[in-house]
Amino acid sequence: MLQVKNLSGGYSDVNILRNVSFSVSRGELFGILGPNGSGKSTLLKMISRVLSIKDGEILLDGCALQQYSSKKLARLLAVLPQVTSEVFPFTVKETVELGRYAHQRGLFQTWSPKDEAVVQEVMALTKIKEFQGASLQELSGGERQRAFLAQALAQEPDILLLDEPTNHLDLSHQKGLLDQLKSWARQRGLTVVTVFHDLNLASLYCDRLLILNEGEVICFGTPEEVLNETLIQQVYKTALENHPHPEVPKPNIVLIPDPEWGERLTLDESYLSRNNEGVTFHSPVPLKTIASAPKGSGLGWKEKFVICKSRLLIEKNENTVEMQAYSAEQLYTHYAAYHEEGFSILIILTADCRLHYFHTWLFINGHVSENTLIEALITVSEGKQTALKEKPRPNGWEDGIVVAATQKGENLTTGRLSSKLGQTILNGMLDCSEKLFNSIKSSLSN
Ligand code: ADP
Ligand code: MG
């Protein structure tokens, strides 16, 4: 539907775009990304013939762009420009009606029932009917954006070019617009080429993406191919990571803020409190946590870790992990810290004498990836299995596990048994369990 071949050009003598090539198929939702000033708007202006081509060519539906009459071009292609603050003194409906210009015939252009029907339809689609009589000047940025989108749609184009269409929209209107564009692309074969500011919106909605940097194409392909952590870091010159979307298999790029200097924290037993009813560990900062527990399971940021005999699930706090203790028996806790070069760990074990439960908390004073957290969890679980091998346990026992890290200090890249962290966890688990069993034994024999 759209082919751009070795395109170069820009404003007067300065070439902003250099040797840009890509193509977009009919019905595709195609996203253009790039840092500020990389030439995205310039590219859209060249495709919509606002700027002329210096070198190379643009083909629309197989024909060179220059060969189209303005009216024919307007029936094929509509543009939603980057919204500026300058506004014309038209009403919303008048603005939308302007979109029909290319479809009107004859010397004395007449307004046909078809024109009216299209205008009504696109106003309904963009949800601006209720303020169709209002002047553009009275509208919010987002409402104005939707009025201009309706104008573009009133052209009934085959290709829609959009420049940062979601910029002035709140979350629900962003989703509404993109869902709508996607369904028009799928159902009506509309080809959508849109500039995006937000990498993650582009990742969620576009079939393919193109990245521009300093007027050149860096790469184009599916979101998975393009939104590569290293490449995006280089182009945007900033620290970020890809943490795939939790619900759909799409890349999701997150910013990593600079660390706050001067912050030091070592988790130790001073954050632990115990009584006959339970155990609480209250960290002064949220910890990157993986947990298996009745409340607060999974991956997340947690601050408070609780084991209690009664009143389970009273905490409404999202930051809490809660486990249950068997109320008929006394509760035993043993903790120990293990120090290595660059990091340390704190293990806290809680059980009753018959091992109805054997809860393990592992706190890591160090920085871990999600991967390390999961490997550490597996190592904890192996250590626990070894420690409990010979121990008879009542039926229906239930154990909780927490592995949580401060995310300050040394980068720990793995938690596997073969690593320093893995070894420290395993030895710590065996040592700490044995001490817990001993204290249970001596308390029972007293
Ligand atoms: P983007 O949309 O990616 O942020 P633009 O395509 O608007 O970037 O701009 C690319 C470059 O072209 C920038 O360096 C900008 O300063 C320059 N530029 C933009 N508009 C004009 C103009 N009307 N005249 C001259 N230079 C311009
Ligand atoms: Mg721009």
UniProtKB/TrEMBL annotation:
UniProt-recorded Gene Ontology molecular function terms: ATP binding
Keywords, in A-Z order: ATP-binding, Nucleotide-binding, Translocase, Transport
ABC transporter domain location: 2-239
Pfam family, one: ABC_tran
Domain of life the protein comes from: Bacteria
PANTHER family named among the record's database cross-references: HEMIN IMPORT ATP-BINDING PROTEIN HMUV (PTHR42794:SF1)
Protein name, entry field: ATP-binding cassette domain-containing protein
Native source organism of the sequence: Bacillus norwichensis
